[in-house]
Amino acid sequence: MRSLPDDPNRAQSQFRLLCAAVAVLACGLLGYSQTLAFAWDEGYHVLAAQLINAGKRPYLDFCFPQTPLNAYWVAGWMRIAGETWRAVHALAALETAAAILLIADYVYARFPVTLWRLVVALSAALLFGLNVPVFQYGTVGQAYGFCLLASVAAFRVAVEGVAKRRVWWSFAAGFLAAAAAASSLLTAPVAPVLLLWALIYNREGGRWVKFIGFLAGGLLAFLPVLMLAVRGFRPTLFSVLQYHLFYRGVEWEEATSHNIDVWLSWIDSADALLLGVLALAGLVFTIQHEADRSRRGEMYLCFWLTAALTLHISTARPTFSRYYLLTVPFLAVLAAVGLYEVGSRLEDRKGPRWALLAVTILLCLALGKGLYDSRDNYSWPEFEQIAAKIDQVTPPGGLLFADEHIYFLTRRSPPSGMELQDSHKLSLPPDLAALVHVVPRSEWARRMQAGMFSTVQTCRDEDDQRFEVLGVPPLYRRNVSIDTCNVYWDLAAAPPAHH
Question: 451, CA 20 to 30 Å: which among 60, 293, 300, 349?
Answer without folding.
Answer: 60
